[in-house]
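2.7 Reproducibility. Because tokenized structures are sensitive to small changes in the input, we list the exact sequence used for Acyl dehydratase, including any N-terminal residues retained from the expression construct. No trimming or masking was applied before prediction.
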Amino acid sequence: MSENATTETTEDRIDIARAAALMAAVDGAERDLTVGSALPPFAHHAFFWAALPEAALGRDGTPAPGQGGPVPDLGLPVRMYAGGQVRWHAPFRASIQAERVSRVTSITRKEGQSGALAFVTIRHDIRQRGQAVLSEDQTLVYRGAAGPGDPVTVTEEVDERRALKLTAVGLFRFSALTFNGHRIHYDADYARELGYPGLVVHAPLMAMHLALWAEERQGRLDRFAFRAVSPLYLGDVAWLCRAGNRYWVEGPKRRLCLTAEAG
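Resulting structure tokens (single pass, no recycling of outputs):
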């Protein structure tokens, strides 16, 4: 499995202002955060930046293969988010030094309709004051070409739904706060070059909206797993949907964009 995979350790002080900015960008909420405040789910995505120089980035705006991070060069230049699972062991708190240890736990190569694919799972373990705070298994897919696959339609009955309203400014701010340079989220011409009709909404942004809703309904979460199914595009009519503890994002014509389960 190794393919020369590495382990990476990153430290960060969990800045209150950045955490507040993320929440303002995602749900418009103003939170009174102080030292030690428990942060909402997915707030950790705004920290532990891989601040590489532009020369170390690929054409898509993400780190070029083999440039920084624990993922080796797999010979596949296009990176997409496939899904993940977060487990919380304790609250992730503001203004406290944190350490994240990242390592590749699996690399699976496959042949898809568009050619070679590699699914890479990275385990991130975060600690504060020597205590385990959360573990995230993040799955990325690397490929030689991008573009949307065949859409999947929602068949499940809905208990509850909420409109998901997204703007170009919101996508840009989320990219900036998570230090995500992937051009499909802010460069519409580039997205169309890859076969998409417009800007693509971040899978973690959709997951964060669902996780915030799940926390609102269920209280503090212990686990949240999600999987990207079909792209959601800026301008699509979109809904956050729920049936029990299962959540999903639905696009036009009941297109299933992302599924999740909260526990």
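The two ends are 30 Å apart (CA to CA).
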